[in-house]
Amino acid sequence: MDLPQDLVALAREVIDTNRYMTLGTSEPDGRPRVSPVYFTHDGYRDLYWVSSPGAQHSANVVARPEAAMVIYDSTAAVGDGRAVYLGAQVVLVPDDELAERCRRAWSGVSKGARAFTPDELSGDGDLRLFCATVSTAEVHVPGRDPRYGTGIDRRVPVDL
Q1: Beta bridge partners of 37
Q2: Is the per-residue pLDDT at 111 higher than 80?
Q3: How confident is the model at residue 81 (pLDDT cuts 50, 70, 90)?
Q4: Which of 11, 60, 69, 126 has its CA 20 to 30 A from that of 3?
Q5: Does residue 160 sit in helix, strand or coil?
Q6: What is the architecture, at CATH level 2, of domain 5-157?
Q7: C-alpha separations of 96 from 50, 92, 154 in Å
Q8: Angular region, 39: left φ>0, alpha ψ -120 to 50, beta rest
């Protein structure tokens, strides 16, 4: 199927206009764990967040770097929801990459994010920078969508 450019634009708009994503990780016993994290992005391919390395979701992605995420507007009326589903590989950004990654994570941020410095995210600091590199993306298409609806809500793959 040819990918409609407006669905790509929709996916990018959802990412640009929302501040939180739900991060899905895997617990040591295989159970899923979901956590809301405030995020920024660089080119829709790298999503960044700052978290305590002692947080369970942080330990999960260090041990098992595959993650799933969803970004959506939780204030949307029933039936008007818009969402982007992402699959990604997550890394704890190494200290020697922090200067460049911090620059990328907070360049042009207008969503109220505080720009952390590399010094705050290394050494004895309480926080670290994580990066999810997107490998798959799908946009939510409601069943009643006038152009792409099929009567049943579905996910349509997009190339961000």
Answers
A1: 21
A2: no
A3: confident
A4: 69
A5: coil
A6: Roll (2.30)
A7: 17, 12, 41
A8: beta
